[in-house]
Amino acid sequence: MFENKEYIAFCPYVSRVNFEIEIFPKKHSPNFENTPVQSLSRLADLLNKSLNLLYKTLDNPAYNFFIHTAPMPTDKKKYPHYHWHIEIFPKTNTWAGIELGTGMEVLMVSPENAASHLRENI
Questions:
Q1: Distance of CA 56 to CAs 50, 53, 105, 118, Å?
Q2: Which end of the chain is more exposed for a tag (fewer CB within 10 A), N or C?
Q3: Which InterPro entries match (predicted)?
Q4: For residue 23, what are the CA distances in angstroms to 8, 29, 69, 77, 102?
């Protein structure tokens, strides 16, 4: 959907919820906590744009967002392959039989259509 010098925000092809947005740093980094302070304002800018898009497009939905970072390394195990990222899950559906029985959400909007609707409000 949009990007800046250091980050990119998009609707993932395999979304778990309608209008899911993910934000990734362009430069590989396993640990969020190692993000340089000067980079955080660019991340905040993309996070703010993403949340404002959801606000405009979905009429101020409730949402959760998660920062996924590599586990703390131990002497025996490190996680250099992991790429930290943020997931934003707007709450657009009520779980019923299929969702409750399987633990999977039925998506009513494809990620491509979600991205298109969100882009209309940029």
A1: 10, 5, 23, 8
A2: C
A3: ADP-glucose_phosphorylase, HIT-like_sf
A4: 6, 13, 12, 26, 27
CA distance 83 to 8: 13
Domains (ranges, CATH) in the chain? 2-120 (3.30.428.10)
Nearest CA among 42, 59, 55 for reference residue 2: 42
Residue with tokens 């304002």: 41
Q: Round to whole Å and give the CA distance between 62 and 102.
A: 23
pLDDT band, residue 74 (cuts 50/70/90): low
Beta carbons within 10 angstroms of residue 56's beta carbon: 14
Q: How many CA atoms lie within 13 A of 48 on its CB side?
A: 7
